[in-house]
Specification:
Chain lengths: 186, 725
């Protein structure tokens, strides 16, 4: 089973944010970021979870070697005794995922609900998400269900990043979308 | 008499709302669940399946319930955080009796003796109908049934009504007029099978978030989606066609779409001939609604109106869904009928993937309106003025038909009668009219006039501040029962834990009062299932037939759709198959609708339209959700949404404090300047009390048929009070 994100479906409800904080390994702390793209012009929101890069930049820039990858390719939060709180990972991640939590003196980030996925449960966020913006299932399942296509190769300048998590991409060009209600009234 | 015994500040300090963020003992406490209880979320008509984690007889968390078919584990934030109520510091643990300097904790005997004493005194002095009951639509079917019987048999008052009167009664009335039955015509599982979804007046993404997935599944299968809303809501953002209707003009818009369909003969003559009556009158009524004229009234461009009709015609199957956006109007019934006319004229009902429905809002918005707690209704959806219906229920209740009261006042009228001094005593359950009724000032004045008021609630609501006795009742997770969700599916609510402290299950409190009023023999219930058995029996043969239901059957099938008239009957997910409607002649009835303006339209003094609604993180008057910390943090208080064009005219920027004035009162709140709303309209969510209450300004005018108030449109003016920081 794999993780798929389609921000275009997101309704901004934040069920994912709240459900993340219910995950046993980090109860009370949510690892998902949910942002309005620009509330003044659209209700569009976008959820950010860790993309679980095959060759994670966050781990590469960590001077303390605190960020580990599991055999399944899940990139974990910084190990508590090793993390020196330098925030290199926070700055380096191409997707803006890790956060340094002062009160815990540790970088924490989405670990794809490791305690759940390793016990054959779906991650909390992708289980509760009412819109299907976050989806956990097989590639065959999502390809059969949806018209958008999963991609997991991204180019940032000269850096090519391949990720475990897939982004669903459709063919509507975003610049064709109009959000100002006034323009629908005329 | 009933002026609150302490200042609002003092009452809030003592009884909240305080914010609860953590499960019992905090995040780090041991929460390994002793058991997982499969039940449902209490916070809307979707009734998502959820498993509550119980540890040491306290609700400590949740686990998704992926096998429940409606939501398959999905939840909105209210469902995720609903577990924070049972162990909440504000939870009422004892009955409270009002004193000169606050409320004192009492035992049940003292509290209920006082209630009974005042019921008897008021009824002896002023007559039976001078004591009224206001109930809720978040309560179980069992409680809804009990409240109706309690009022008619134990109190013998005509005056019982419920807060569903503020919710969807206009849709219910229109459905009865057109189809002869009040229930969504199709199960939601029909949505993914359709080719066109038309959603009007429903902010699905925030009010029924789970249905967003149904919408997307339809679109994944190739369906198109039309959204009609004055605001660009999270789902409207993704629509294939968006019609930004001016609030209060919905019936004109629907007439306009039907006009185009008739003009091009894109209607289903065979269906109209075989299964309906009255089409000619509708044809005549919509004749004048040319796209041009409709555009002028509705504020939707003519081309978009034509396009909507084309898309409707291009699809072979369609689902038309609506909610409070078209229902909260003085012409709520007409708005709904104008939608039904479109559905009937094109024969788009009664088939897989093809149909119609209102999406009921409250937790038991459907069941709450079926079992006799409405002023005009007896169990089984029966009519309180129908002699045969009266006879049937009198027999079930073992009383004389002549003893049954007749039709009483609807919720808003009832509060007006309190204000006029005709009603002197009130018992409420799960109803917070001070926040939820329009024109707060009037409601407050009415509450102050009550000689006696008893409120049953798990938390001290703003209205309960005015009570003489507050009876610590139960949360949904503290009692057994059933609820009927927005598609007509009866589901099973489980008691995860007992009520904490000395709090009691609501039904036990009501039964206790009935017994103290000398009606022991007529209220012989030992558990909610006794009530359910009687409810099912009472419903047999009525318009809303539950006769074949029982708890085991409901649990085994993950809910059963009514009508379910016999043990063997599998239930009825889809109504009107084969064009069979519920009127005696089996036909559906068209009703011509002519647009008329809102009760209070804009003018030179009040030139701006105000509309109200919900946000995803709050539920109704917020008695519960304004106490759940993470939900409050998500959207801490109401904001005034307005378009930059309107903002510019008043020199308003996001964050500025803006005063919204109507003919009734005013409210001052921060502005949120967004392009996602019509430039002639402002929006304020209504979940908050006091100074922050949107209902300070809303209009108390009622729909003449259903008596639903006009929450969705009134006339206001704006004034910038203070620049934001
Ligand atoms: S998305 Fe960022 S945090 Fe996640 S693995 Fe890649 S670099 Fe690390
Ligand atoms: S739960 Fe899904 S729809 Fe809601 S905010 Fe998160 S990603 Fe968006
Ligand atoms: S509020 Fe409604 S949609 Fe949200 S979890 Fe509860 S039942 Fe489901």
């Amino acid at each position: 089973m794999e993780f798929f994100i389609d921000p275009s479906r997101c309704i901004g409800c934040q069920a994912c944010v709240h459900a993340c904080a219910e995950c046993e390994s980090h109860r009370g702390v949510s690892m998902i970021h949910l942002d309005y793209v620009d509330r003044s012009s659209s209700p569009q929101t976008t959820p950010t979870v860790c993309m679980h890069c095959e060759d994670p930049t966050c781990a590469r820039v960590c001077p303390a070697d605190a960020i580990k990858q599991t055999a399944e390719g899940v990139v974990q939060s910084a190990l508590q005794p090793r993390c020196i709180g330098c925030s290199n990972c926070v700055l380096a991640c191409p997707f803006g995922v890790p956060r340094y939590l002062g009160e815990m003196d540790q970088m924490m980030k989405c670990d794809m609900c490791y305690d759940r996925t390793s016990a054959d449960l779906k991650p909390m966020c992708a289980t509760v998400c009412p819109s299907g913006a976050l989806f956990f299932g097989t590639k065959e399942e999502i390809e059969q269900k949806r018209q958008e296509k999963p991609i997991n190769r991204f180019t940032f300048g000269r850096q090519v990043v391949t990720t475990k998590v897939h982004l669903m991409v459709g063919d509507t060009a975003p610049d064709e979308m109009e959000f100002d209600v006034a323009s629908f009234c005329e | 008499m009933a002026i609150p015994p302490l200042s609002e500040q003092e009452l809030i300090q003592q009884y909240g709302p305080h914010l609860n963020y953590e499960p019992p003992g905090g995040w780090l406490a041991e929460h390994e669940p002793d058991r997982l209880v499969k039940t449902h979320c209490c916070f809307c008509g979707v009734q998502c399946g959820i498993q509550l984690k119980v540890h040491n007889e306290k609700v400590v968390g949740f686990e998704p319930w992926e096998d429940f078919p409606v939501n398959q584990g999905k939840l909105c934030p209210k469902g995720v955080k609903r577990y924070l109520q049972n162990n909440h510091p504000d939870r009422l643990l004892h009955p409270l009796i009002r004193t000169d300097n606050g409320f004192r904790e009492a035992d049940w005997d003292d509290a209920l003796s006082l209630v009974v004493e005042h019921i008897q005194r008021i009824q002896a002095t002023y007559g039976k109908d001078a004591f009224a009951v206001l109930s809720g639509a978040s309560v179980t079917n069992e409680k809804a049934y009990l409240m109706g019987k309690f009022a008619r048999v134990a109190l013998q008052t005509a005056n019982i009504d419920y807060n569903g009167r503020l919710c969807m009664v206009s849709a219910g009335a229109a459905n009865k007029m057109a189809f002869g039955i009040d229930r969504a015509a199709n199960p939601w599982s029909d949505i993914p099978l359709t080719q066109l979804v038309l959603v009007t007046g429903s902010n699905i993404g925030e009010c029924f978030p789970i249905l967003t997935d149904y919408l997307w599944r339809a679109r994944d299968n190739g369906a198109k989606f039309i959204a009609i809303d004055p605001r660009m809501t999270p789902i409207a953002r993704t629509a294939d066609l968006f019609l930004p209707v001016r609030p209060g003009r919905d019936s004109a818009l629907m007439n306009g779409i039907l006009h185009v369909l008739i003009e091009h003969d894109w209607i289903d003559h065979d269906f109209i001939d075989a299964h309906t009556k009255g089409f000619e009158s509708v044809q005549k009524a919509v004749a004048e609604y040319t796209p041009q004229m409709t555009a002028e009234i509705s504020g939707v461009p003519a081309a978009s109106i034509v396009r909507a009709a084309e898309m409707w015609a291009e699809a072979e199957k369609s689902m038309l869904l609506h909610a409070r956006g078209i229902e909260h109007h003085t012409k709520g019934v007409e708005n709904v009928l104008s939608c039904i006319n479109l559905v009937l004229a094109t024969g788009r009902i009664g088939q897989p993937g093809c149909g119609y429905g209102t999406i009921t809002g409250q937790g038991n918005g459907q069941g709450g309106r079926e079992h006799g707690q409405r002023c005009n209704q007896l169990p089984g959806g029966r009519d309180i003025e129908n002699p045969q219906h009266r006879e049937e229920i009198a027999r079930t209740w073992k009383v004389n038909e002549s003893e049954l009261p007749h039709v009483g006042l609807t919720a808003v009228e009832l509060m007006d009668a309190v204000n006029a001094g005709q009603i002197k005593g009130l018992l409420s359950l799960s109803f917070n009219p001070l926040v939820s009724l329009p024109d707060t000032k009037l409601t407050r004045a009415a509450l102050e006039k009550l000689e006696f008021y008893a409120a049953i609630d798990p938390f001290m609501s703003e209205t309960a501040h005015y009570a003489d006795v507050v009876l610590a009742g139960s949360l949904q997770e503290e009692d057994e029962g059933t609820v009927t969700n927005g598609e007509g599916r009866v589901v099973r609510i489980r008691r995860a834990v007992p009520p904490p402290g000395n709090a009691r299950a609501d039904w036990e409190i009501i039964v206790d009062i009935a017994h103290r009023l000398g009606k022991e023999l007529l209220f012989p219930y030992a558990e909610p299932e006794d009530l359910f058995r009687e409810l099912c029996r009472a419903s047999a043969g009525g318009p809303v037939d539950y006769a074949g239901l029982n708890y085991t059957k409901i649990e085994q099938h993950n809910g059963v759709f009514w009508p379910c008239p016999s043990r063997e009957h599998p239930g009825t997910p889809r109504l009107f198959e084969g064009g069979e409607f519920a009127h005696p002649d089996g036909k559906a009835q068209f009703h011509p609708v002519t647009y008329r303006p809102p009760d209070e339209d804009v003018d030179a003094t009040y030139p701006i339209i105000m509309t109200s609604g919900r946000v995803v993180s709050q539920y109704l008057s917020g008695t519960q959700t304004r106490r759940i910390g993470p939900l409050v943090d998500q959207y801490p208080g109401p904001q005034i949404e307005l378009h930059p064009r309107l903002a510019e005219q008043h020199d308003i920027q996001s964050g500025d404090m803006v005063c919204v004035e109507s003919r009734r009162s005013s409210v001052t709140l921060p502005a949120l300047v967004v392009r996602t709303i019509r430039p002639d309209t402002i929006f304020i969510p209504y979940h908050w009390p006091g100074e922050q209450s949107a209902n300070r300004v809303t209009n108390r005018a009622l729909d003449p048929i259903s008596k639903i108030p006009e929450f969705k449109v009134c006339a206001v003016r704006l004034r910038k009070v203070k620049a934001g920081v």
